[in-house]
Amino acid sequence: MLDSPITAPIPADEGAAPGRAARTARRWFLVVAPVLAGMLAVAGAAADPAVDLDGRQLYRLYADNPEALQFKSLSYHFSYAFWGVAALLLAWSVRGRGAWLANVAVLLAFLGATSLPGFLLADFYDSGIGQAFGVEGNVAVEEAMSGMWALQVMQISGVAGFLLCLPVAALAAWRGGLVPWWAPVAVVAGIGGGFFVVGANVPGALIMTVGFTVLSVALARSRGLRGAPGSVGTPAGS
Hints:
This protein is mainly alpha-helical. Helices cover 74% and strands 0% of the residues. The chain has nine helices and no strands. Helix 1 (12-47) packs antiparallel against helix 3.
């Protein structure tokens, strides 16, 4: 009896090539995502008309420079997007040792990805309110929102999730044998030295980009990420 088109067996090598190509594309997306996150952060910092400023000065410059503000906010939006997806893909690649740590990284990335990029919408409102009502309008809105506790919860969980998700994912990948020890160290040094020591400006973003690029180099060299069917990667020796 002849096999029907639905039940006929598929030759082993017929589906292997597309699956292998899809895994390769996924792997290289993971490799380049941290670099893209860093480069877009540099672009955002360069376009920011009120870099390193806050309060009335920031509101005035955002109102006076809406075009530059849009480049800044759009660049940071996609920087955060690549940052978050890099943490998620890397965490999902971890098998065996480091798997529970990878679960923590997924939770942190979830908190960051669902909160922090949305806060960039505030830039557009800051500019629009400043143009329509002046700096006093910005100050009045800020004071009205300052007592909203839910906003504080979203800010704290979003910022903490984003800052920690990629370092924790890189640490989990090290524990799982996917990357060497210097990969998570580079990520921590990039974020810590860039944003916390230097600031959210071009030099700080460049430092962060260097750290993220080191992680990408480690991912590109990882034999484990060339992996097993059905996953982005499998730890070396699994």
